[in-house]
Design a protein that fits this description.
Blueprint (H helix, E strand, L loop, with lengths): L5 H4 L6 E2 L18 H5 L10 H4 L25 H4 L11 E6 L2 E7 L6 E7 L6 H16 L8 E4 L11 E6 L3 E2 H6 L6 H20 L2 E2 L8 E3 L5 E3 L6 E2 L20 H4 L8 H16 L9 H12 L12 H9 L19 H10 L10 H4 L6 H10 L5 E3 L2 E3 L23 H16 L7 E2 L4 H22 L1
Antiparallel strand pairs: 1-14, 2-3, 3-4, 4-6, 5-6, 7-9, 8-11, 9-10, 12-13
Helix pairs in contact: 5-15, 7-9, 7-14, 9-12
Bound molecules: zinc ion.
EC number: 2.7.11.24
Pfam families: Pkinase
Family: Belongs to the protein kinase superfamily. Ser/Thr protein kinase family. MAP kinase subfamily.
Amino acid sequence: MAFQDPSHSSVCGSLFGGPDLGPKFFCIAANNAATAGSSTGLGTASGSSGPAAQAGGPRHPAALGGGPGGGATAPQQHNKLASETPSPADMEPDRPIGYGAFGVVWSVTDPRDGKRVALKKMPNVFQNLVSCKRVFRELKMLCFFKHDNVLSALDILQPPQIDCFEEIYVITELMQSDLHKVIVSPQPLSTDHIKVFLYQILRGLKYLHSAGILHRDIKPGNLLVNSNCVLKICDFGLARVEELDESRHMTQEVVTQYYRAPEILTGSRHYSSAIDVWSVGCIFAELLGRRILFQAQSPIQQLDLITDLLGTPPLSAMLSACEGARAHILRGPHKPPSLSVLYMLSDGATHEAVHLLCRMLVFDPCKRISGRDALSHPYLDEGRLRYHTCMCRCCFTVASGRVYTRDFEPVASGRFDDQYEKTLTSVWQVKELIHRFITEHQQGKRVPLCINPQSAAFKTFIRSTAWHSSKVSKKEER
Ligand SMILES: [Zn+2]
């Protein structure tokens, strides 16, 4: 099935199309076009008051516990929104929810089951070989992940035949907010919240690192959260497999500056999963203090702020630094460490919290704690207990009590294999491989979904993605 036949789509306002989907929600209006928009909430292609009109600006997802009387409460049993199928009348229109570095995300209704899901358009996929490879890698990773604290692909939309194949759309679970929005909101953040968030970040990170994957852009905006405090790591646009050969150079154009590890700031040509742990340390401090820990204007100033806190590093911690960075540090005055200021972040900065924080914020990546070992720190015991008592999907409750899983922090079933990348040589070849990958991925699973290109929502979606793409490419030109 390629793009939907327009004759079927003129009455459908949802992004999704396709007579194959059956009449359940979508094309419900095929029998009664006049009432399609108003009665189903799916909107119409022609009405100016339909979802397209409402979808004019990005929605700011509800902050944690953002509902009436809400409040960032302790974790609840489960999220009703995610587990119940709404009636058509309850359905929200499709609309944009976020603009990441590598795509635009919309909140849409899956016409197969009525559930709200996130739809991400991966832009500029086939521009050049580098972008093709990056998208293919992200797509493969999203399909590889099987962990509750890592966002994964629920589905990929059916591609058209290869000559018309320009865009890739991925469906993931819809999350309500992200940690950046939570941190800057007036919502109170208790120590319990911080512990359960940090536990889940490290739990997801342990899984990623066990698969040999470096995320390379861990920041609050890439940590999605629900009102029940479940957290998932997302955006794998910069992720890659760990390079075990230390003589191979790795790009330094990674990690948002505030969360960038000192080894990247000092120009190390090779780095490890320790860079992600540094970012988590920065986020931990940000959760405690409700402000960015190292907020500098430039990479050099970023490094200066780090040495202000940690003190001048010993030469042994700068073996992989480039000459210029080492000279810059040694040229300046010798700085003593001032880690005691971490106690002033907030009342939650207890001895235990600061102890763990200081194990993550270590200048020398070889001496920095690993994600796996950080999980053994006593600070996280309560977070683990809370998560597995009422938030996780690996433990369950029976009449006699809670039955806990045998492995609280599971690792990946194997390493993510990126050997295929060595054989990729042309845009067309990768295009064919991606096309085949998506088609094979879908086989025999669910009714395939495709975009309804005639819908008003789709037109708005395309406008928003085009606007975003032009902004991104302008940025890249600089
Ligand atoms: Zn559990």
